[in-house]
Amino acid sequence: MGAERKKIIIDTDPGIDDAMAIFVALNSPEIEVIGLTTIYGNVYTTLATRNALHLLEVAERDDIPVAEGSHVTITKGTKLRIADFVHGSDGLGNQNFSPPKGKAIDQSAVAFLVEKVSQFPGEVTVVALGPLTNIALAIELDPEFPKKIGQIVLLGGSFFVNGNVNPAAEANIFGDPEAADIVFTCGADVLAVGLNVTHQVILTETDREKLAQSNGKFAQYLCKILGIYFSYHHEAYETRGVYLHDPAAFLAAVDPSLFTYTEGMVRVQTNGITRGMTILDNTKKRYGEITEWSDKPIVKVAVTVDAPAVVKMVMERLMNS
User: Which of 67, 85, 182, 183 is the least crowded, having the fewest Cβ atoms under 10 Å away?
Assistant: First the structure.
């Protein structure tokens, strides 16, 4: 017997690249997806839940529970930034799928997260692919949450490069900067995968052709929804490929050796024109004064990625489905 499969909860706002990450996860023998929790981001939370249920139905994995997450930011903000212009108004490339038959469980995402990390202390990895509201609320609900969770792998931040919402901020962190700051400073084993690495992981037109020609069920499904994502990237970045943000972050949880990391304290700016900016203190300097940076926990931040290996894994797991 090999090591026991890692238990993973994916906190998600599907989203085309979320769909890709979820399908890759369902076809990853190293891990076991024990639940999906939903959050706003690419779409509103209600639609995120519907899309999560729909994707599990496509994958014939109705055994995996979906728990609906927060509809507002941690400061109760209701003016949400929704990126439907990237993923289509339905979040899945405007394909107007019929509504899923499944339903979310009665438990909220936050209660589900707290229950699972208490049930399997040290064994659960949460892969957070949207704003960090649910995770921060779980930390508020159960102060022991950071000690009980195995790891939080989050897609967020743009370390040493510009953001994608504006020059300062990346979308997930910008979606709820206060929540992100709570997560970065909570003391859990946190690994951040930011735009500085995900912008190197690109699915090209050629890769898309390969997916289209394969018999993989997941590959075929994704080819239907990728159109709008490609045209958005072409317009926004003048590139003929798409960034694989979510699948890259997910694979950091499966195989950390695909990336290299630096360590330091991370704080999130919560106001002004740099709201949502992630700032990493990776100097070894001892500062003179006691400040907002003093004695904060250390987190890991991805700095390089073996992009060809990540794309290859994503392709293989989608085509062999």
Answer: 85
Q: What's the pTM value of the predicted model, to 2 decimals? A: 0.96
Which residues, 6 or more positions from 47, have their beta carbon under 8 angstroms from its beta carbon?
Answer: 90, 91
- Extract the tokens encoding 61: 């994995």
Active site residue 245: yes
List domains and CATH numbers for the chain. Answer: 6-319 (3.90.245.10)
State residue 308 phi and psi, 5-degree precision: -60, -40
For the chain, give the secondary structure using H, E and C.
Answer: CCCCCEEEEEEECCCHHHHHHHHHHHCCCCEEEEEEEECCCCCCHHHHHHHHHHHHHHCCCCCCCEECCCCCCCCCCCCCCCCHHHHCCCCCCCCCCCCCCCCCCCCCHHHHHHHHHHHCCCCEEEEECCCCHHHHHHHHHCCCHHHHCCEEEEECCCCCCCCCCCCCCCHHHHHCHHHHHHHHCCCCCEEEECHHHHCCCEEEHHHHHHHHHCCCHHHHHHHHHHHHHHHHHHHHHCCCEEECHHHHHHHHHHCHHHEEEEEEEEEECCCCCCCCCEEEECCCCCCCCCCCCCCCCCEEEEEEECHHHHHHHHHHHHHCC
Among 54, 87, 233, 245, which one carries the catalytic annotation? 245
318 closest CA partner among 250, 209, 222, 251:
222
Closest CA to 17 of 53, 43, 46, 50: 43
Question: Which residue among the candidates 13, 18, 90, 176 is catalytic per the annotation?
Answer: 13
Q: What is the pLDDT of residues 258-305, one digit of tens each?
A: 999 999 999 999 999 999 999 999 877 788 888 888 889 999 999 999
pLDDT attached to residue 1: 43
234 catalytic? Reply is: no
